Amino acid sequence: VKDVLRKTMDTVECKLKATKEAADNVKHEAFAHAAASVKLCTDLDNDIRELQLAEELRKDRAADLASLKIQTEDCRKLLGVGMQTSEASKSIRENFSDVQDSLESLVSAA
After folding, report:
1. DSSP 1
2. CA atoms of 52 and 63, how far apart (whole Å)
3. How far apart are CA 94 and CA 100, in angstroms?
4. Model pLDDT for residues 2-26, shown as the tens digit of each residue
5. Angle CA(22)–CA(28)–CA(31) in degrees, nearest 5?
6. CA 30, CA 26: separation in Å to the nearest integer?
7. Distance from C-alpha of 87 to C-alpha of 23, rounded to nearest angstrom
8. CA quadruple 32, 37, 38, 39: dihedral positive or negative?
9. Euclidean distance between CA atoms 99 and 108, whole angstroms
10. Burial 70-92, CB ≥16 within 10 A → b, else e
11. Degrees, nearest 5: CA angle 22-25-29
12. How far apart are CA 93 and CA 90, in angstroms?
């Protein structure tokens, strides 16, 4: 009976040891998966931050582009006004020259 009991105890201890080893292996795998999950979450958070920064940059560039378009239109208008002013000044100079020529004609005729 003692031999049977000892063999049973040895078998139980052997199975208990194998179960503990299996449990340890599962723990190690779980820790490895948890570490990989943390890394994936960190990488995902970094990717999300990069995308948010890229979106902010895109919005800033779009706003800058809109501002440049407005400035371009304002410059075109200013250039148009400058051209009109230049043409008006040219016309005034021509009229002044005509008046001056007429006065010189009158003075020489007198």
Report:
1. -
2. 16
3. 10
4. 889 999 999 999 999 999 999 999 9
5. 140
6. 6
7. 94
8. positive
9. 14
10. eeeeeeeeeeeeeeeeeeeeeee
11. 140
12. 5
Q: What is the pTM of this model?
A: 0.52
Residue 9 CA to its chain's centroid (Å): 68
Cα separation, 99 vs 22, whole angstroms: 113
Q: What is the largest CA-CA distance in the chain?
A: 160
CA distance 27 to 17: 15
User: Tell me: the pLDDT tens digits for 27-45?
Assistant: 999 999 999 999 999 999 9
Query: What mean pLDDT, rounded, does the chain reach?
Result: 93
Sequence letter at residue 12: V
In sequence order, the 6+-apart residues with CB closer than 8 A to the CB of 94 are none
Would you state the structure tokens that stand for residue 43, as one six-digit string? 């990488």
